[in-house]
Design brief:
heterodimer; A: about 220 residues; mainly alpha; 7 helices; globular; B: about 110 residues; alpha+beta; Arc Repressor Mutant, subunit A; 6 helices; about 60% helix; elongated
Chain lengths: ~220, ~110
């Protein structure tokens, strides 16, 4: 055996195999679409309702992903229960995400309060930073390395949008363009991964009917 | 213990290695089971890349040795098998790891 056996790598491989299907990438892309489409709804619905209107869409996307996980992915890759180490790490991840969302919400409120009193790029930089920190933290705790890349491109989206707005007079601070491209890229990545996953992992057909171990 | 036996032990340190675990396929299965709480048959097949028959055979040997517990049940109407490492299996895997480390550490560079 020429390869070094690393228990940590084995655990990581077992855990990260749950991200190979691309479904979370598709969900993240769907989430980002609100920043691309939302600005067009703001004039009619207002800032608050133009965000809230996306909640049923997220719920639907989440339900679709849950359904596909259960009926398409699980029959192909099976079920695993992770050990205490991973469970603890996931609890820390969940706590971190709650904290990040709270900070995100507070920043949103702060931006509404300070609107017009501070330069627009400061609001943008705040959101870029929180996007970057949130995605990098998620990438670290989930061992989901693509999230580092997503974190960087998502963090760059509002900044580039601001540049497009200042220099090219792009509408809605350039968000529809930059977040549209980012969301499209992430959804496309997810779709490619999902199709590749289905091709690489066909439904098992050689399973013994009773699953009795062969002596 | 005779002098000959002692010499044999010195010359054959690998003889103490647990042969049930030492087979590469079973070592791979045990490694994955060691790092998770439990996994089903399909998951192990997916991770190890083995065929049903192959994996079944190795799991049977591990079960006979008392290293894994195979729990058969149903998910809806379909049969479903969960596999977990027993305490004995966990101890045996740790022992195997230590023995191998010792054997390899004792080898000259």
């Amino acid at each position: 055996m020429s390869q070094k056996i690393s228990l940590k790598d084995a655990e990581r491989r077992a855990f990260t195999s749950t991200f190979h299907d691309g479904l979370w990438d598709i969900f993240i892309g769907c989430f980002l679409l609100q920043f691309s489409i939302g600005p067009f709804l703001s004039p009619t619905l207002g800032d608050f309702w133009s965000s809230v209107v996306f909640l049923p869409f997220f719920a639907l996307a989440f339900l679709v992903i849950w359904f596909v996980k259960k009926h398409v992915i699980t029959p192909r890759v099976g079920i695993v229960k992770f050990g205490q180490w991973r469970v603890t790490r996931m609890m820390r991840f969940n706590a971190g995400m709650v904290l990040a969302l709270t900070v995100f919400l507070l920043l949103g409120i702060l931006s509404l309060v300070q609107f017009g009193s501070i330069p627009g790029w400061i609001h943008t930089a705040r959101f870029s930073l929180i996007f970057l920190i949130t995605f990098c933290a998620a990438a670290y705790f989930l061992d989901f390395t693509r999230l580092y890349i997503y974190g960087v491109i998502i963090a760059l989206s509002p900044l580039i949008g601001e540049v497009l707005y200042v220099y090219l007079k792009a509408s809605h601070h350039g968000f529809p363009i930059t977040f549209g491209i980012t969301a499209g890229l992430i959804i496309l990545t997810g779709l490619v991964l999902f199709i590749r996953f289905l091709q690489d992992n066909p439904l098992p057909t050689d399973q013994p009917a009773t699953e009795e171990p062969i002596e | 213990m005779t002098e000959q036996q002692t010499d044999q032990e010195k010359l054959h340190p690998l003889a103490d290695i647990d042969q049930v675990i030492h087979a590469p396929a079973r070592l791979m299965v045990l490694t994955y089971l060691y790092v998770v709480e439990s996994a089903d048959f399909i998951y192990l097949k997916h991770l190890t890349g083995m065929t049903w028959g192959n994996l079944s055979t190795h799991l049977s040997k591990l079960e006979e040795a008392g290293y894994v517990r195979i729990e058969k049940g149903f998910k809806g109407k379909k049969p479903h098998t969960m596999i977990r490492l027993t305490d004995q299996g966990r101890d045996a895997f740790r022992g195997y790891k230590q023995s191998m480390q010792q054997v390899l550490d004792d080898l000259p560079e």
